[in-house]
Amino acid sequence: MAHLSGTDRSQLLLLPEAVDDYVGPDNPVRFIEAFVDGIELGAAGFVRVQPKATGRPGYDPADLLKLYIYGYLNRIRSSRRLEAETHRNVEVIWLLRHLKPDFKTIADFRRDNRAAFKTVFREFVVLCRQLDLFGRELVAVDGTRIKAVNNKTRNFTRPSLAKAIQDADERLAGYMKRLDEGDADEDRTPGGGSGNGDGKLAEKIAAIQGKRDRHKEMLAELDRTGADQISLTDPDARAMARMTKVGVGYNIQLAVDVKHKLIAEQAVSNQVLDLGLLAQTAIAAMEALGVERIEAVADRGYFKIEDIEACEAAGVTAYVPKPIRGPAVREGFFGKDVFRYEPARDVFVCPAGAALSPRYRGKSRDNVKVDYANRDACKACTLRSRCTRSFRRVSRLENEAVLDRMATRLAARPEMLDHRRNSVEHPFGTIKQWMGQGAFLMRRLENVRGEFSLTALAYNIRRAITLVGVPGLIAAVRT
Ligand code: SF4
To answer: Which pLDDT score is estimated for 247?
Structure first.
């Protein structure tokens, strides 16, 4: 039996007469059209919303925004590929009514309106609120790293520069020695030696010297600016220390509502660690969801007393497990968690049952730190080899009650940590695997923020379509 052969290319067909007939009622482009048409683009911060009075007519920002939302929903992010789609993709032809902007116009639009994309993202959050898609009770906060347009070899830290300079010095010393030896040979055998070889050596020495000078200049720049690293291709990108796969990139923060795993808030920074980013992300999520109180769960990387306090003051009830760290733990001694604090007596009770009282006051960053100890008990203690070398001190910040309250909450609801894992992994996995966004296309922090707002918007749209369907979303836009 023959294979399916398709239709003869020269045969006349009775194709639908209108492009509209090619686009079904539940095609996402119909929602994109309705959603963008409902946004006040001028108020959202888009440029060139009003057409020019004179000159050649330009493209309506609404059309270019529709093109970008379509592109991010369909893993097409490059301006050249988007231009190609305007010529061959019937959905894009429908969406843009046969308009065919060139790639430069498309790229310029994304760059010029980078800040406005966040407003569009928030508009969609408001739409999801109308549809009751957010639980608005608990958000999971977490971060991931996405690669920047900056190769690892074009990022320099103080240690890497110091090492490069040291290596250059060693190589230079070796080459100089060889030059000296060549000179000595020539002196011994007049008319001998290879002038050509010395020339090549001199070239190598000049190249190493030039590179060394550039590294010196970069080190001086780090000293002058107080920065800790320099990226040459994208100056805002940073080496994500422990993220070896990402190398140089940006830190993406998400607050995900646990009800349907929709993103309530997103932010991009070039801070390497998550530490210190909890309050700002959770408070922004609370505002975006339009509530006055919310719970937020995050992993140990966010454990910072100032952040937990800021959350509590703003109405965010934080759940962050305490990291097991500190010099005692590193040396294999008892961790602080086995010392029980008794607020009524203001003492720590140690594993041997002794009471450690406040002994020393000091500073820890902006906080007052009190050290608790009981020298006499330690002297005679049978557990001393597992606890300390001489006598044990246990520190407590004056405002540490906020951490005690959080520990009590977490002990009462350990399932909170499962909520975190189950909620944030969905958007991260979808964005990186399904949407194929393992790397940014643009350089500089502000551009990358705009780019990620489109990514997060596309994720939320896709999720909302799964939950309520295209007709449901269109109906919500029109109410
Ligand atoms: S060494 Fe001191 S602090 Fe440690 S268990 Fe013994 S008495 Fe307690």
So the answer is: 87
Does pTM top 0.85 for this prediction?
yes
Q: Whose CA is nearest to atom 7 of ligand 1?
A: 378
- Please state the atom number of ligand 1 nearest to the C-alpha of residue 387: 4
Tell me the C-alpha distance between 329 and 397, whole Å. Answer: 18
Beta strand extents in 320-415 (DSSP E only) = 340-342, 347-349, 355-364, 367-373, 393-397
Radius of gyration, alpha carbons of the chain: 31
Rounded Cα distance between 330 and 46, Å, is 53
For ligand 1, whether the C-beta of 381 sits within 6 Å is: yes
- DSSP assignment letter at 430: I
Question: Which one has a higher pLDDT value, 366 or 115?
Answer: 115
Q: How far apart are CA 81 and CA 59, in angstroms?
A: 18
Strand partners, 269: 251
Residue nearest to ligand 1 atom 5, measured at CA = 352
pLDDT of 60 higher than 90: yes
Q: How far apart are alpha carbons 392 and 351 in whole angstroms?
A: 11
Ligand 1 within 6 A of CB of 378: yes
Cβ-contact 341, 396 below 8 angstroms: yes
CB 248, CB 152: distance < 8 Å: yes
Pocket mutation for ligand 1, best pick of 383, 385, 389, 394 (most atoms within 8 Å of C-beta):
383
Ligand 1 centre and the CA of 369: distance in Å?
Answer: 20
